[in-house]
Amino acid sequence: MAERSVIMAVIVASGVPARDRHDVAQEILLNAWRSVKRGMYRPDPKAEPRKALRGWLYGVSWRKVGHHLKSAYVRRVVLSAQPLGWLPEPTGPSLEAQVAAREVLDAMAELAPWQLEAILSVDDPLSLVAYARRRGMNPSTAASRLRIARKALAMKLRRWRRCR
Length: 164
What we know:
- By secondary structure, the chain is mainly α.
- Helices cover about 65% and strands about 0% of the residues.
- The longest helix has 25 residues, at about 140-164.
- The mean pLDDT is about 85.
């Protein structure tokens, strides 16, 4: 952050529009930090540390600004006061999809806590085996609980749809 002036000088000199300058500077700082953490910043031990850092940041900034200016977003951006007016029809989930989602949520709210936890474990980026280990149970038990919870949810949804 102390050498932000180098980054801003490259951004301004390269012709980045004023509306994008802070976003590009933030992206440069974030990518520079990631590069440092990956060990990509290896300055010459003979060089003065601050000069080496400024030179490296200049290179990172120059490359990132080039990518930004060549991106399709910058080349084809069309600013409009009413961007939704350009759309041919309303966007977003249909009313039927919203009603169906509400039915699923209401049915899930009626499940037992262990069933709800088993169903939500499917969305976990870890595998079912990792989920079972975290809970201190056998993976087969976790799979069985997930199967039972899915059946219970399916039955509740059938009842919901019959009642309505």
